[in-house]
Amino acid sequence: MTDLTGRVAIVTGAANGIGLAIAAALAKRGANIVVADVEQSATEIAVSRLPTKSAWWIGDLTATDAPDAVIATAIDTFGGLDIVVNNAGYSRNALIENMSEEIFREVLEIDLVTPWRLLKGAARHLKASAANTGVPAKVVNISSMAASGSAHGQTNYTSAKAVLIGLTKSLAREWGPSNICVNAIAPGVIDTRLMRPRTDDSLLRIGDRSVPYGLAPEAAAQYDSIRATIPLRRSGHVDDVAETAAFLCCSGSDYLTGQVLNISGGAIAGMSS
Questions:
Q1: What's the CATH superfamily of 8-263?
Q2: Domain ranges of the chain
Q3: Contact 173/187 with Cβ under 8 angstroms?
Q4: Is the pLDDT of residue 272 over 60?
Q5: pLDDT confidence of 217, banded at 50, 70, 90?
Q6: pTM score
Q7: What is the pLDDT averaged over residues 149-161?
Q8: Who has greater pLDDT, 87 or 227?
Q9: 157 catalytic residue (yes or no)
């Protein structure tokens, strides 16, 4: 139920954090991985450490031609595509009255439009995989507990992640007859560089843009109080998310589609009781 030998997976944003852990979890089960990321050095290191044959694609995933290039890397290297994990993303926070439309659209591009483009391009390959092998193809979209509307100053990020859940559910219905399972994971407070205090070096360079990551001091204090309300009394680890993603890519989840699994230590998100 956990064997992915010979399966081909694209994992975006897989040079660090949750994406890297997912790539490693799939490779540990035998999958061949295409690591798609913008950070060249980290991507090359990630691929060199994976235990199965892997490839990389390095560049700005929001470029209109990037998803097709990532898919071509999988097809040209491995001859097919069975699994897509849409993990790449980031947030740029501001109160709505202080948020520019440029920043709003920038976050939607990476967190929503890029997954849509990648899945649109992957459609025929995933359908061919399921038809030719009789084994369901798998899609895992990494959303967020923030999609429930509980994130302050993140109208762009929460909007993108909420619609990504809508995309997941819609595609599960569209692609179910083609034997493709489409599910989402909504992580809560996970210990990654995005959830650690921001420093002067906390910059992601994408072409001519520099995107800050990490928590501003006031946000870091807020998350300290949030952690105290988590029933399991800790932040999550990247492997907590990765092992769930691996389950959704293995045969044990072959009758699971259109679902959103909250990885939150029992924390309740959103604005409802």
A1: NAD(P)-binding Rossmann-like Domain (3.40.50.720)
A2: 8-263
A3: no
A4: no
A5: low
A6: 0.92
A7: 83
A8: 87
A9: yes
The larger pLDDT score, comparing residue 269 to residue 252, is at 252
Tens digit of each residue's pLDDT (9 = 90 or more) over 137-150: 999 999 998 888 66
pLDDT digit string, tens, across residues 240-256 = 999 999 999 999 999 99
- Residue pair 82/138 in contact by the 8 Å Cβ criterion: yes
Catalytic member of 90, 157, 223, 255: 157
Over the chain, what HEC string results? CCCCCCCEEEEECCCCHHHHHHHHHHHHCCCEEEEEECCHHHHHHHHHHCCCCEEEEECCCCCCCHHHHHHHHHHHHHCCCCEEEECCCCCCCCCHHHCCHHHHHHHHHHHHHHHHHHHHHHHHHHHHHHHHHCCCEEEEEECCHHHHCCCCCCHHHHHHHHHHHHHHHHHHHHHHHHCEEEEEEEECCECCHHHCECCCCCEEEECCEEEECCECHHHHHHHHHHHCCCCCCCCECHHHHHHHHHHHHCHHHCCCCCCEEEECCCCCCCCCC
